[in-house]
Amino acid sequence: MKVNGMPTRTIRPATDGLAVDVIDQTALPYRYRWLRLASVEDAAQAIRSMQVRGAPLIGVTAAYGVALAMMRQADDAALLAAVETLAATRPTAVNLRWALARVQTCLTPLPASARAEAAWREAARIADEDVDQCRRISQHALPLLRSCSGANGRLEIMTHCNAGWLATVDYGTALAPVYAAFDEGLAVHVWVSETRPRNQGLLTAWELAQHGVPHTVIADNAAGALLAGGGIDAVIVGADRIAANGDVANKIGTYLKALAARAAGVPFFVAAPRSTIDFCCPDGAAIPIEERAADELRLVHGCDAAGVASQLRQLPLAEAVANPGFDVTPAGLITALISERGSCPASREGLRALYPEERDE
Ligand code: MRU
């Protein structure tokens, strides 16, 4: 996608070959800046602090993190330590563990001297595949969205969190078909929920604005009334982990939108690549839900009148705070899952039909 008119991916090897450059998503939408990750610790910290975020992107960042570790030391102990450090950063998005397992499987049989180069190659392959899969998701999702558009030809889409190109390497998952719809001239408009407490909706608004896609930001609490009011044609979100039975973990607040969409008779789609599907996880109850720091609720971030990024405390330290990062939407509330292979019902049978090569665990 483009930033200030320039084709851009969210992550790229640094030109000196010694580091990885990523867009710092904690600075957006106020400042567009790049960060240099020069070690496995840098990569782990960027994932932990959500400077990089979104299930597919944290998987790719972790893969590059192993490559950074292998440049310093590449024996078995160093490989295991790098994988364990990165795996411990965030628990819910399975793409992280999927990417780490893939790089580890690729490197383990190799002599230490060959591991760094092989890790860079494998990480780049995972990044390129992510781009390709998002493009395919968009091809499968666009006809579904188009079929939801109203008699006036307009397509009113609601989304939650950020499942756009910032959450992937390029294109995005849930937003990829929105960009495709816009590019082919459809009158598409996106209702973007703010997504408290980390406000990933502001990232969605920023990237939609970069592409010129019409959109409106709403408070999370406005979604139910908007859906009930009949002005939304479809809801589409991404996922952090899809269990084998089709239950979906995604950003906290997704479940409420799915409930409201069902009550209003609005289709609710989930778009995600294969790396987000966990065939070893039987159902949503088995998905680990990340509990994040209380300060994410206690502090609000923004920029002050001078345009300087700033934060304000909105809750006293003594207040008890719960901050689950994700919730689970039961398969029964999901109209269809959309992956790079096509769409399917959110069910064990639907997923097996898309991925017949997956064994029953
Ligand atoms: O906590 P985040 O911002 O990493 O959570 C991101 C989401 O929940 C996204 O919706 C999900 O990863 C899909 S990204 C294509």
List the SSEs and their pairings.
Layout (H helix, E strand, L loop, with lengths): L1 E2 L2 E2 L3 E3 L6 E4 L10 E4 L2 H9 L6 H18 L3 H12 L6 H14 L4 H35 L7 E6 L16 H8 L3 E7 L6 H12 L3 E4 L4 H6 L5 E4 L3 E3 L4 E4 L2 H11 L3 E4 L5 E2 L16 H4 E5 L5 E5 L12 E4 L6 E4 L2 E3 L3 H7 L7
Parallel strand pairs: 6-7, 6-9, 7-8, 9-12, 10-13, 12-17
Antiparallel strand pairs: 1-2, 3-4, 4-5, 10-11, 11-16, 14-15, 17-18
Helix pairs in contact: 1-2, 2-3, 2-4, 2-5, 3-4, 4-5, 5-6
5-S-methyl-1-O-phosphono-5-thio-D-ribulose binds next to helix 2 and strand 11.
What is the number of helices?
A: 11
Name the poorly predicted regions: none
Number of strand segments: 18
Q: Quick check: average pLDDT?
A: 97
Q: What's the CATH first level of the largest domain? A: Alpha Beta
Q: Strand arrangement, largest sheet?
A: 8-7-6-9-12-17-18
- Overall body shape: globular
Reported CATH architecture of the largest domain:
3-Layer(aba) Sandwich
Name the beta content range.
15-25%
- Please describe the biggest sheet, giving its number of strands, its sense, and whether it closes into a barrel: 7 strands, mixed
- CA(first)-CA(last) distance: 38 Å
Write out the CATH superfamily name of the largest domain. Answer: Translation initiation factor eif-2b, domain 2
Helix and strand string, N-terminal first?
A: EEEEEHHHHHEHEHEHEEEHEEHEEEEEH
